[in-house]
């Protein structure tokens, strides 16, 4: 074996060990929260030795911070043209991922619980503000936003609203209704921020995955508004 290969082997094992620790930590933090998690539980879940654990992370607090700021790693956003529809799709995708993705779920939970490990850090939230703002800039360039919309302020409002919606959904249904709650958030927000031409063409559900049946057709904002208007008229009649 060459010297270079001999050097690469320990490096590869270290990378794999660190990834296993982070994955196990995410699962444990997701299940037990910061207070209920322990280094021993994470070591057992990751199947690593104490030496392997402390080679990468010196404390539970350091590990929690790594999981918190890495909450978006490994996500595969829906494909599509950048802009307002893509931003809607990203938020709906995140709502679905929060139902089963332990890395995202743990990172989001730790961002809320960070006071328990001595932090007041908005870096995880700011990362989502930047992600959303990028899509809003594309939307602005395409004429999809109302003239008076500030893309940075709207991105901040979206992250704040999404955070509140997922917390409420977690408390009430274990996030079972989160995709519907995020769709409702957009339904009330879009009339204030989207141009008239754009708003009528937007979907409030993710497109079917490749190979999946179409099922119910994706409902567009304008169609949904018309349907609700008709239902309201029937009730009044």
Q: Helical proportion?
A: 55-70%
Integer-rounded radius of gyration: 21 Å
Please provide the count of β strands: 0
Per DSSP, what share of the residues sits in E-state strands of 2 or more residues? under 5%
User: How many separate helices?
Assistant: 11
pLDDT < 50 runs, ≥5 residues: 212-219, 222-237
- Let me know the largest β-sheet: none
In round numbers, the mean pLDDT is: 89
Q: Quickly give the structural class.
A: mainly alpha
User: What is the CA-CA span between the terminal residues?
Assistant: 84 Å
The arrangement of helices and strands along the chain is HHHHHHHHHHH
Please provide a written account of the structure.
The chain is elongated. Mean pLDDT is 89; it is low at 212-219 and 222-237. It is built from eleven helices and no strands. The chain is 69% helix and 0% strand. By secondary structure, it is mainly α. The termini are far apart. The relative contact order is 0.09.
Outline:
69% of the residues lie in helices and 0% in strands.
Task: Please render the helix and strand layout as text.
Layout: H1 3-36, H2 39-46, H3 50-56, H4 60-69, H5 84-97, H6 102-113, H7 123-141, H8 151-173, H9 178-193, H10 196-199, H11 221-236
Helix pairs in contact: 1-2, 1-4, 1-6, 4-6, 5-9, 7-8, 8-9
Main attributes?
237 residues, elongated, 69% helix, mainly alpha
């Amino acid at each position: 074996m060459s010297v270079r290969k001999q050097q690469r082997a320990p490096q590869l094992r270290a990378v794999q060990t660190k990834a296993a620790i982070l994955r196990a930590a995410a699962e444990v933090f997701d299940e037990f929260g910061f207070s209920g998690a322990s280094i021993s539980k994470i070591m057992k879940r990751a199947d690593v030795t104490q030496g392997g654990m402390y080679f990468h992370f010196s404390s539970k607090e350091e590990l929690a911070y790594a999981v918190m700021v890495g909450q978006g790693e490994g996500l595969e956003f829906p494909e599509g043209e950048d802009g307002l529809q893509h931003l809607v799709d990203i938020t709906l995708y995140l709502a679905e991922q929060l139902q089963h993705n332990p890395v995202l779920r743990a990172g989001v939970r730790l961002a809320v619980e960070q006071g328990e490990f001595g932090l007041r850090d908005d870096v995880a939230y700011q990362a989502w503000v930047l992600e959303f703002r990028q899509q809003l800039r594309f939307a602005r360039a395409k004429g999809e936003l109302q003239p008076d919309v500030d893309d940075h302020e709207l991105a901040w409002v979206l992250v704040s609203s999404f955070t509140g919606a997922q917390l409420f959904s977690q408390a009430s249904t274990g996030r079972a209704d989160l995709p519907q709650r995020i769709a409702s958030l957009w339904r009330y927000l879009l009339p204030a921020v989207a141009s008239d031409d754009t708003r009528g063409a937007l979907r409030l559900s993710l497109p079917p995955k490749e190979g999946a049946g179409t099922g119910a057709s994706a409902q567009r904002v304008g169609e949904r508004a018309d349907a609700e208007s008709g239902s309201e008229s029937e009730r009044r009649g």
